[in-house]
Specification:
273 residues; Alpha-Beta Plaits; 2 domains; 8-stranded antiparallel beta barrel; 25% strand
C-alpha cells in the first residue's frame, strides 16, 4: 500500500489520506482492467506524483477469492484534502477528454480511443453497480529505513476491527502500547516495508472502523511478523497476556474482526531525486 515515500510526507502531514476504489472485475477481463488503469489513471497519478501531490498509488488483488467480494482495489495517497481534490479533478478531466476523443474517433480506427469511452469500458469489464469507494486516514505509521527495491510488488496484510463507539482513543493507545513496538522493530530491521493504523475518514456503513496494515516484500516476511508477535506475547506473564486479550476484546466487537491479504499488481512510488 504505502511505503517509504511517507517518510517525506510525514514531514508535511503526519496523517495522510488514502482513497480506495473497490471493483468486481468480470472473470477473464483482468488484463483489460489493468490496461484501462494504465491508459486512463496511471498517466494522471504519475504526473501528480512527479508534482508531489500523489505520495504513492497502486493496484491490489486479494489472495483469496470469495463470492461477492471485490477482486481488485485501486488506491492513491495524498497529504490532505487539497491533494485529494487535485487528483479527482485531474481524473475527471482525463475521463472527459478521453470520452470526447472516443466520440470523434472514426469507426474502425485502431487505438485506445476507438475502444470506447473510459466509463463505457469500465462498465463492460466490471460489475459497476458493486463498485465501492472508501477514504481512510493513517493515524500512525512506520517505515523501513530504506526505500524498497525498484520493481517491488508488496504483499499487504490488513486486519480490520470494529471499535465500540467512543472507544477510538483508548483503542489507539492500546495499539500503540502493545502492537507498535513490535512493528517498529520489524520495520527497523527491514522485515516489513511499512505499517500503519488507519480509520475511515468519512464513515460509511462498512463493517470496520479501524484497520492495521502491514506491507512486506514477500509472503515469507509475513511469517516473521507472526512469529514476532507470538514471541512478544509469550515473553509476558499469563496474567499480562490475559489482560491484553481482555483489553482489546473490551474495546472492539470481536465477532466483526476480519483479515485480508493482498498482492500488489501495480505499485508506484516517487522516483528518488
Amino acid at each position: 500500500m504505502l511505503i517509504a515515500c511517507f517518510v517525506t510526507a510525514a514531514q508535511q502531514q503526519s496523517q495522510p489520506l488514502t482513497f480506495w476504489y473497490e471493483y468486481h472485475v468480470t472473470p477473464g477481463k483482468e488484463d483489460d482492467f489493468l490496461n484501462l488503469v494504465k491508459t486512463v489513471g496511471q498517466p494522471v497519478r504519475d504526473k501528480l506524483m512527479a508534482d508531489g501531490v500523489v505520495l504513492a498509488w497502486g493496484v491490489e488483488a486479494p489472495l483469496l477469492r470469495m463470492p461477492d467480494a471485490p477482486t481488485h482495489l485501486i488506491w492513491f495517497t495524498v497529504a490532505d484534502y487539497a491533494g485529494l481534490e487535485k487528483v479527482l479533478s485531474a481524473m475527471n478531466a482525463q475521463i472527459t477528454k478521453m470520452t470526447e476523443d472516443a466520440a470523434k474517433a472514426p469507426a474502425g480506427k485502431k487505438g485506445a480511443a476507438s475502444s470506447g469511452a473510459p466509463m463505457d469500458q469500465i462498465r463492460s469489464i466490471t460489475d459497476f453497480a458493486k463498485t465501492r469507494d472508501y477514504l481512510t486516514r493513517d493515524l500512525v505509521s512506520g517505515f523501513a529505513p530504506a526505500m524498497p527495491a525498484a520493481g517491488t510488488l508488496p504483499w499487504v496484510r490488513y486486519v480490520f476491527a470494529k471499535v465500540k463507539p467512543g472507544k477510538g482513543g483508548e483503542y489507539r493507545k492500546a495499539w500503540e502500547k502493545y502492537n507498535k513496538p513490535v512493528l517498529d522493530k520489524l520495520a527497523a530491521d527491514g522485515t516489513i516495508l511499512a505499517f500503519g493504523l488507519a480509520v475511515e475518514d468519512i464513515r460509511t456503513d462498512g463493517d470496520f472502523t479501524h484497520y492495521t496494515w502491514i506491507a512486506t516484500k514477500d509472503l515469507a516476511s509475513q511469517d516473521k511478523v507472526r512469529a514476532a508477535f507470538l514471541a512478544d506475547r509469550d515473553k509476558r506473564s499469563q496474567e499480562e497476556q490475559d489482560a491484553i486479550t481482555h483489553l482489546f476484546a473490551s474495546l472492539t466487537d470481536p465477532d466483526a474482526a476480519r483479515a485480508e491479504l493482498t498482492r500488489s499488481l501495480i505499485f508506484h512510488l516517487p522516483t528518488p531525486k
